[in-house]
Amino acid sequence: MAPPPGPLAISASPRVHALLARLHAASAAQEKSLSQVWFYLKRFITFYISSSAWGPAADDHMRDKFVALEEDKCHFVYLLARSSGALNIVEAGTSFGVSTIYLALAVGQNVADQKALGRTVNGKVIATEKEPTKAARAREHWAEAGDEVAGVIELREGDLLETLKRDDMPEQVDFLLLDIWTPMALPTLQIIKPRLKKGAIVLADNTKMARPLYAEYLDYIQNPANGFKTTEIPYSGGLQMSVYLPE
């Protein structure tokens, strides 16, 4: 019998695997609920009618929602980060911190690999979250994950268009995960782009399901003049994978 998907893809302790399984189950239950399906449908209808997809009422509704990256996408993200040796990762849109655990596992293991070769390196995941209650929940989940992610995650609370402009950003960013309100995707990429190393990976979630809302981002990422090679991975909702390869 094959091992379950988590242990098959991810190197982590049984405690962390159990935590991730529990969090994914809770997130999936929320996403499949009729109220959440109706919420997303209303957002699309509102966008097509008035080009406005968000507002205070939407913020209130989403305040206690995981909106976590699906488990199969998280496995893919982890394996990409591990295989690329990513040391500095920016996650735009942390929510309850589920995908952050995968990123932190990868960074911690990449750092350990480099140190085993006698190299002096550091690495971290810079996570962003505007909603204080979500940031608090994320910290609880990371504390439960324990030493495997401790010291790897730096959470920046507030407007990410400000917190990611701070002078204490890493000189080089190896990996950027965009899992945020779609109009924020392009401005966030443009802030991080000067720090992207050649070969850096950029992922944007739900680019098929929310394609009209991603129009500006996709126009930018698909323009060869901006230095990216890009393709859509056929996960549920779509996952745009781009690699920064400026000439």
UniProtKB/TrEMBL annotation:
Keyword NAD: no
Protein name: S-adenosyl-L-methionine-dependent methyltransferase
InterPro entries: SAM-dependent_MTases_sf, SAM_O-MeTrfase
Annotated Gene3D superfamilies: Vaccinia Virus protein VP39
Keywords linked to the UniProt accession: Methyltransferase, S-adenosyl-L-methionine, Transferase
Record-stated family: Belongs to the class I-like SAM-binding methyltransferase superfamily. Cation-dependent O-methyltransferase family.
A GO biological-process term: methylation
Entry GO MF terms: O-methyltransferase activity
Domain of life from the UniProt record: Eukaryota
PROSITE patterns tied to this protein: SAM_OMT_I
